[in-house]
């Protein structure tokens, strides 16, 4: 049976409160799969569950100063996720009521996946940062992130070395993080990559 709590959780929370991204990544990876089962069970949609999980960890990070005082971290994290789920379900009920009035537009609207409020500005900042990547750096990033090509495939297509592709991707990620911090967003790498994966 999988452990329900990290053995060093209290220490991790203190480190996260101090801005330690590696500690946050450990917490993030430990709880993601566990939250996925819980959230999917509530909203009955894997894509929406992914959105809610990213929103949950975004709130954990943004409220990290509270972490040292959290007595039961697992319950706290699951409570955040559950509240976001319930808000989503309430919005869906209001939406369905509205759709009954606007029946002719129901099919298109029901197929939309709602973007949670706290992620909208972050995604806008990500896209803005990508737009500011120059020349080949932007091309490599788009081939890797949006078209899903492997680094070796990009190297072959552009007639450059795999190491050049790897270094360019790392430089692009650093640029995106710096651009976002300049915009007021400090997002840990693990969470940023998860958000970009859904956005692409």
From TrEMBL:
GO biological processes: DNA-templated transcription initiation
Entry keyword set: DNA-binding, Sigma factor, Transcription, Transcription regulation
Gene3D superfamilies (UniProt xref): 1.10.1740.10, Winged helix-like DNA-binding domain superfamily/Winged helix DNA-binding domain
Domain spans labelled RNA polymerase sigma factor 70 region 4 type: 124-173
Pfam families registered for this protein in UniProt: Sigma70_r2, Sigma70_r4_2
Coiled-coil zones: none
Ranges of residues in domain RNA polymerase sigma-70 region: 34-93
SUPFAM superfamilies: Sigma2 domain of RNA polymerase sigma factors, Sigma3 and sigma4 domains of RNA polymerase sigma factors
UniProt-recorded Gene Ontology molecular function terms: DNA binding; sigma factor activity
Protein family per UniProt: Belongs to the sigma-70 factor family. ECF subfamily.
NCBIfam families: Sig70_bacteroi1, sigma70-ECF
UniProt name for this protein: RNA polymerase sigma factor
Source organism of the structure: Pseudobacter ginsenosidimutans
Taxon lineage: Bacteria, Pseudomonadati, Bacteroidota, Chitinophagia, Chitinophagales
